[in-house]
Design goal:
By secondary structure, the protein is of the alpha+beta class. Helix content is 20%, strand content 37%. It is built from 5 helices and 13 strands. The chain has a 7-stranded mixed sheet with strand order 3-4-5-2-1-13-12. Strands 6-7-8-9-11-10 form a 6-stranded mixed sheet.
């Protein structure tokens, strides 16, 4: 399946979504920093599964209606940073949907994640990632799961990979950096964590109106990959 994850930079890149969905023949589209009140219900062949309701900078998941059936969607509040407490609160930092895949006959979970900003510590972000993985497991203990989004973790990613490995998940980075706004903090901010999924490739797409670059993930459940 083809998945794009895109941080829209306070919804500034929203006009690009239809083109992204059509150009890459997407199965799933996971968004961060979107204005959920302005999101269309349909983007070409994609339908909105659900979006957060409490955030100024929202999260959303679109899916290919001809292939997937959404069974359940949940949003989750994760440990708050100081930024969340005193500045621009982001109550829901994770949205996950459990799907039935008509093509494979299996269920899986897809999630869009937005970690605390760089003003927070890596320790807090690791806590959020671990809690996010645990929350998604509650939606389906043994289901293949892919969580994409803005992890705000440009440094010490080898260490992060070790921490994530302890939860049973794998960390996958894209082929090129995904953030370009500040010279100091350029790097991979947007990536993939997964369990029970074969991440075949993660490609950084060309820059648009956002300070983040979208990533295109090619993924398959382990069961399907083994059968192939």
């Amino acid at each position: 399946m083809k998945i794009v994850s895109y941080n829209l930079r306070k919804n500034m890149a929203s006009a690009e979504l239809g083109g992204l969905a059509e150009r890459h023949d997407l199965d799933l589209l996971c968004l961060q920093e979107c204005d959920t009140k302005l999101l269309p219900a349909v983007l070409g062949d994609l339908k909105l599964a659900d979006a957060t309701k409490l955030n100024r900078l929202g999260l959303a998941i679109y899916y290919r209606e001809s292939r997937f059936t959404p069974l359940e969607t949940k949003t989750f509040m994760l440990k708050k940073s100081l930024h969340d407490m005193i500045a621009s609160p982001t109550h829901e930092r994770l949205i996950g949907t459990r799907f039935f895949d008509d093509e494979t006959g299996h269920e899986f979970i897809a999630a869009s994640f937005h970690a605390a900003p760089l003003t927070a510590t890596n320790s807090l972000r690791r806590n959020q990632i671990k809690a996010a993985h645990a929350s998604l497991r509650e939606m389906g203990e043994d289901l293949p799961t892919v969580m994409v989004g803005d992890y705000n973790y440009p440094l010490f990613q080898k260490g992060l990979g070790k921490h994530i490995g302890k939860t049973g998940y794998d960390l996958s980075l894209s082929d090129r950096r995904t953030y370009t706004r500040y010279k100091i903090f350029t790097g991979h901010f947007d990536f993939v964590t997964s369990v029970g999924m074969a991440i075949e490739s993660v490609e950084t797409l060309p820059i648009g109106a956002s300070d983040h670059l979208p990533i295109l993930v090619n993924a398959a459940s382990i069961a399907k990959a083994a059968a192939a």
